[in-house]
Amino acid sequence: MTTNYSREMMCAPRQQLEWGFGGRRKVRDGALLIALFLGGIGAGQFVVSTWLLDYKLSAVIGLLFVAVGKSVAHLIYLGRPARFLRLFLRPKTSWISRGLIAMIVLVVFGAAYLAPDFGFGWLPWSADSDLGSAILAVAMVAAFVVMVYDGFVLASCKSISSWHTMLLPVMFFTYAIAGGVAMTALTSMLDTGFVLDIDNLVSLDTMLLGAMMALVVFYVLNLATSDVTAKESLRTLVMRRTAIIFVGLAILAGLLVPIALAIFHQLDIEEALANVLLGASALLELCGDLSVRHSILKAGLHAPVF
Amino acid sequence: MVIDLKRCTGCFACVMACKVEHQTPPRVFWAKVLRSERGKYPVVTRQPIPVLCMHCKEPECEKVCPTGATKKREDGIVIVDNKICVGCRYCVVACPYGARYFVPKWTDYFTGKDQPSSKYAEYARKKWLAENDKGVVTKCTFCVERVEKGRKPACVDACPAEARTFGDLDDPNSEVSQLIKRRKGFRLQEEQGTEPAVYYLPSR
């Protein structure tokens, strides 16, 4: 069997091993994948909960995913975590700096927006006031950047054909919003025993599932019609070990089954069953979100240098 | 730097010279020789391709670095400041030449552990940690400490076939500039727009 080391010494497409599971530090390098996943669904949950449902508890959980989950995962991943503050220094040229600054803005402004509803009523604004709306608008813009920046981080790597496409920021954004819908549904099920505003959530979820399916198809077509390295990435996605995760978990479990459940939901079914179906669909979508990000990282191949 | 592919025999002397000069740990190759095979039997050619950091004029690694640890010196040499690097590895992924290595910790060549197994390994560990540290990204420095003393990089000095020539690309009369002009030197992955400072002379 050809090892990664001997492949590195050949003039052939070279797999990136630094981001995602399987790098030099095996499991610890996977923390980056978890950070991207938690950042996406956390920002998505904050947006969906505040914009669609005005469901403050869910918005707080979304913020916690970003503030605690994403941050801790990033710190675990870094080679020198004690120097993390330096990551914010180059927003002019580096997407990592831009994304992390947006993350801080989201956490600060998101917390400021929600604070009056959680025991800080003495603050000079409320969620309904003009100042509250302005704070929310800043938090929303920051949440948008948090959802797309990881796509831009990958897309900025010119020598990795399967990443160097503007489809990635769009895909990551769509998956983040869908993850937000899934997390909001699960939070309300655990909190109240049923899904709040289930019809609206299901409609949005169905739309997002359609969009995600279309984006995955475009992405695969883009790989199939690009250069040799991109075609090799596609082979990695659909024919090698990653295929189990990409085809099995990301497409079958994460997209096709939830689409089938969404269609079934359109039939006149009991509310209890509808709740269970949406819960199951939400779990599968989250699994699909994580799998698609993992597959994209794994399929990142550098073009041969010669 | 100019590398003459016609002269390179793929002897790995440059790789070893770099290892000895910088005491790089296992699986870290600032200078490496890639194997390239072209054609179909019976017309097949095998060409060794020596690769190192290209010290690009427009380095992608410098652009994406969120901390400013990767810097371009006035003489064109791209370096990593190990006191600033956080080990995020954006540069490793963005480098089209695979020239950068993240080293989470120093390891011994023979035992694979982080404790040295001999006096020489102890020296290697000390030198590596003093010059590069752990948990950061490392790369070829064009042997900056030698160049500053007017010497050539270790890989250039060690090449028995004299396939490597080191000099000033900005000087049109320098040996490197003349070689590039005369032998139609080319650069790897020019389409990336990084403008590498390492040129290759064709093998035929």
Notes on the protein architecture:
The complex is a heterodimer of chains A (306) and B (204). By secondary structure, chain A is mainly α. Helix content of chain A is 70%, strand content 1%. In chain A, helix 2 packs across helix 6. The two termini of chain A are 23 Å apart. Chain B starts with a strand and ends with a strand. At the A-B interface, helix 4 of A face strand 2, helix 2 and helix 3 of B.
Features:
heterodimer, A: 306 residues, mainly alpha, two-stranded antiparallel ribbon, 2 strands, 1% strand, globular, B: 204 residues, alpha+beta, Alpha-Beta Plaits, 3-stranded mixed beta sheet, 7 helices
Question: Quick recap of the structure?
Answer:
The complex is a heterodimer of chains A (306) and B (204). Chain A is mostly helical and 306 residues long.
Kindly report the spatial arrangement of strands forming the biggest sheet of chain A.
1-2
Termini distance of chain B? 19 Å
The radius of gyration computed from the alpha-carbon positions of chain A, rounded to a whole number of angstroms, is: 20 Å
Given the structure, what is the number of helices of chain B?
A: 7
CATH fold node name of chain B = Alpha-Beta Plaits
Poorly predicted spans of chain A: none
The number of distinct β-strands of chain B equals 9
Number of domains of chain A: 2
As a whole number of angstroms, the C-alpha radius of gyration of chain B is 17 Å
Shape of chain A: globular
Largest interface (CB within 8 Å) is between:
A-B, 41 and 41 residues
Q: What is the β-strand count of chain A? A: 2
Which of globular, elongated, flat, extended, rod-shaped describes the shape of chain B?
globular
Strand content of chain B: 15-25%
Helix/strand/pairing category of chain B: alpha+beta
